[in-house]
Amino acid sequence: MIGKKRNGTLVNGGQLVPGIVGNAIEFNGTNEEYVEYGFINESCMNNMDDCTDGVTITFWTDSVFTSNPITILAMGCDMANERQGIRVEIGPNTLILNARFSDERQLAMFDLVPTGWIHHGLIIKKGQEPQYLINGTVPTKQGSAFWSTTSSIGGTVRIGSRFESVDVHHFNGKIDDVRLWKVAKCPEFVMYIFDMYKK
User: Which end of the chain is more exposed for a tag (fewer CB within 10 A), N or C?
Assistant: First the structure.
């Protein structure tokens, strides 16, 4: 599901259902269901500052929206403990991207109208505005910001939930075909991935 065909552990339930690329995982949003990949022993995944070439992540979602933002993916990023990493969430008509380096935090929010299965592509590089594509196009940006910060090292990858122990932001819906590269790909590459599987 991520990178070199690693296997994750499904925690607290979740089930396989038909998806875009074979089977997807469906989460119910209430039982803290998630996929845990554990500590990824590669420098770029446990120290964002080592991601000198950036990061690209793509995935499909079919979400049930609630009043609270729900977490699609968290890679090391734990706001409560100032951990480096990336977190992607969906709120009502909004997509939220957080990226933390040791001395920089990026936050960007984009318009998102739920329409069944949606393909997401995010391109992140330190010192640059993050890029996001939804179904192969650039959505309207609601706002973005950079902060100077100091954050410790993350490293764990989790799909469907944050890392905070008490949390109401569990994913509700389906997630499929999560892909991660340790390089900031071009938008045309993300569009190519979308075009391969779009309905």
Answer: C
Q: Residues, the chain, total?
A: 199
Q: Which of 4-13, 105-114, 160-169 has the highest mean pLDDT?
A: 105-114
CA 134/CA 146 separation, integer angstroms: 22
What element of type H or E holds 25?
strand 23-28
Amino acid (1-letter code) at residue 43: S
What's the whole-model pTM score?
0.85
Alpha carbons 100 and 153: distance in angstroms, whole number:
10
pLDDT tier at 70, thresholds 50, 70, 90? confident
Q: Give the pLDDT band of residue 154 (cuts 50, 70, 90).
A: low
Per-position b or e across 126-153, b if 16+ CB within 10 A of its CB:
beeebbbbbebeebeeeeeeeeeeebee
**What gap in Å lies between CA 198 and CA 136, rounded to an integer?**
10
CA–CA distance, 170 with 51 (Å, rounded to integer):
27
Q: What is the pLDDT of residue 175?
A: 94
Q: Are 8 and 2 in contact (CB under 8 A)?
A: yes
